[in-house]
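User: Assemble these into one structure.

Assistant: Restating your components, then the assembled model:
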Amino acid sequence: MSELLRCENLTKTYHNTKALNSINLTLESGKIIGLLGPNGSGKTTLIKLINGLLTPTEGKVLINGNAPGVKTKSQVAYLPDNSYLNSWMTVKQIINYFADFFEDFREELAYEMLKKLGINADTKLKTLSKGNKEKVCLILVMSRNAKLYVLDEPIAGVDPAARDYVISTIINNYNPDATVLISTHLISDIEQILDEAIFIQHGDILLHKSIDEIRAENNKSVDELFREVFRW
Amino acid sequence: MKWTLDKAKPLCPQICEQVCLKIALGEFKAGEKMFSVRETALLAGVNPNTVQKAFEQLEQDEILYSVRGSGWFVSEDITKAENTLKNLVAEKTEMYFNSLNALGMDNDSIKNYVKEWDNE
């Protein structure tokens, strides 16, 4: 297990709002990690910093020793929290686009997953339902052979049956060297497949532990602990 | 047999226990090849790292063994797995008797009750 991602005193301020408060975080390779926190806690800010869509106000983030840039983007597969694809394109066109753009894209795998979920590759994106659009986005991301997968709310709009498929897709494409960072509110659906959980609140990291440690220490599921910690 | 996992408890020991039960109940037979770590992870709906850890634990306990390049096998001697089942049955039985004792029933009437219940 080697270090894959490191945040050092990472701070992000929007005008006078502190979104991330000097956080220090190290993630190892070969893990599935849940990034859990209430709305507005800083999850998406952290994810955008990892992907170089925001620049830190202070501190730094390193992926395999490199600051976010061209090099890290070829190693990080990112699923944003809202769609960024051209809606006039067909699924097939988008797959070609991805295959062209990313060296590590596995086209066959993408078509296999589409078939399993019953999505026709000739449909235009704008005619797909919200849930199916999300599935396409996730398929595109999981079809890459990346070192780090960053999934921002991957299952929020997907029906429960397809959720199971999404979860098994994540397990299936798990590669012992890759790490998956998942931000979500639907903790009870995914906690079974997590190695570690990170609790984040008001831009601070409250806890970063292995799931089995959390359960052993609290005699509760991560979902129950979350509800207790973030009770309002 | 399904994988029944309690979300409020650590997963790794639960996987170990379930594998032992499956061996003791004959779903996996002595000396036979097991499912791979990934297959088991998919069947149980858990993380492959957790299954890997559980299998390594079971190897230390001599319940499974691994062969480099060909995967995981059930040990020839399955007494340890059978003991896990026995302990679990003993534990559940004790809980059952204790809870009915607390209602004021004595052991003989509980046994009679169980027989009647089974006949119905």
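Helices of chain B lie at 11-24, 37-44, 48-60, 79-101, 107-119.
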